[in-house]
Amino acid sequence: MINSQTYEDAVEEIFSPQINIEMDIPLNDLTESIIGEIEALAPFGEENPRPVFSSRNLLVKEGTRQIGKNGFKMWVTDNSTTCEAVSFGRIQLDVPRPGSGVNLAYIPSINDWQGLQSIQLELKDIQ
Fold first, then answer.
1. What is the pLDDT of residues 53-101, one digit of tens each?
2. Helix, strand, coil content of the chain in percent (nearest 5)
3. Whole-angstrom distance, CA of residue 96 vs CA of residue 102
4. Distance between CA atoms of 85 and 87, rounded to whole angstroms?
5. What CATH class does 21-126 carry?
């Protein structure tokens, strides 16, 4: 029994993808200026990956919708700041229900759509 549990724990640790989170940041502290400073660290690639951040205790707002075949878009808030969070379907994530509380791991960026700029969170994990 103990060996069986140890084996299951080892398999989970080996095969579970790990996300290296640079920093936990409250959503209302994430600004376009901070994202600009992150972009100054480019070029990004295998030797210099984009930093992943996390924000906790967020609320999923109404209006979650599918993007493409496997992706989705939703809006999250900390009751002070609201941001668009997107999954482009490259990784399998469960779509949370509107009104649910979530913790997110993401790469922040500036979305420039028809001349309007806003903070966008590219999702890496949802809890």
1. 999 999 999 878 998 888 999 999 999 999 999 998 878 888 899 999 9
2. 20, 40, 40
3. 8
4. 7
5. mainly beta
